[in-house]
Every structure is written in C-alpha cells, then in structure tokens.
Amino acid sequence: MPTALHSDALTRFGYALSDRTRTEILLTLRDAPGYPSDLADAIGVSRQILSNHLACLRGCGLVVAEPEGRRSRYRLADERIGHALDDLLGLVLTVDPACCRAAEDGCC
C-alpha cells in the first residue's frame, strides 16, 4: 500500500521533470558532474535561470553541490537517479513512440 512518503517522493520527482530545463539538467548530469557555467552553456540558458533550476533540484533532493575552491560542481544525489531516468525514458518511448511529436503539437 502506498504511503504519503512514497507519494511525496514521486511528486517531487515529477515536479522536477515537469520543466524542460530541469529535465535537461538531470539528463546532462546523468552522464557526468558539471559546473553551472558549463551546464548553462550546454543547455542554452542563462546562468541565472540555471541557478534557479539547480536550487529547485537541490530542494527536491535530486542534485547535490560539491564545493571545489570558489566553484561548486553539481552531480546527481544518487547514481540510481540516472538509472531511473534511463528506465523512464525507455518506457515512455516504448509505450508511446509518438509522444515527442504530440508534445510538440501542444497536446501535452
């Protein structure tokens, strides 16, 4: 039987994935840790926007910042998050291969 803790945890994960920028951050960090400036450049957003989304992802418990001198490097809080993203992506594309076209058409 699901508990409130289970529901809360999945709701946080769903909220993180509900924004394209946050999703791109998570997908990028599943490959390797990164610095905010590099992540912003790779994703194509300003550093301020990226910083706001990183704060959200930290609040959700999905990423952590590791201080390195005057900089911080971000990584997924647990490597299993990367595996979960891979599994979720594979499942979504298997269940509905047209999902990306539907999202572009504005139905999702």
UniProtKB/TrEMBL annotation:
SMART domains: HTH_ARSR (SM00418). Signal peptide: none annotated. CDD domains: HTH_ARSR. It holds the Pfam family HTH_5. Residues 2-96 form the HTH arsR-type domain. This is Metalloregulator ArsR/SmtB family transcription factor. The lineage of its organism: Bacteria, Bacillati, Actinomycetota, Actinomycetes, Mycobacteriales.
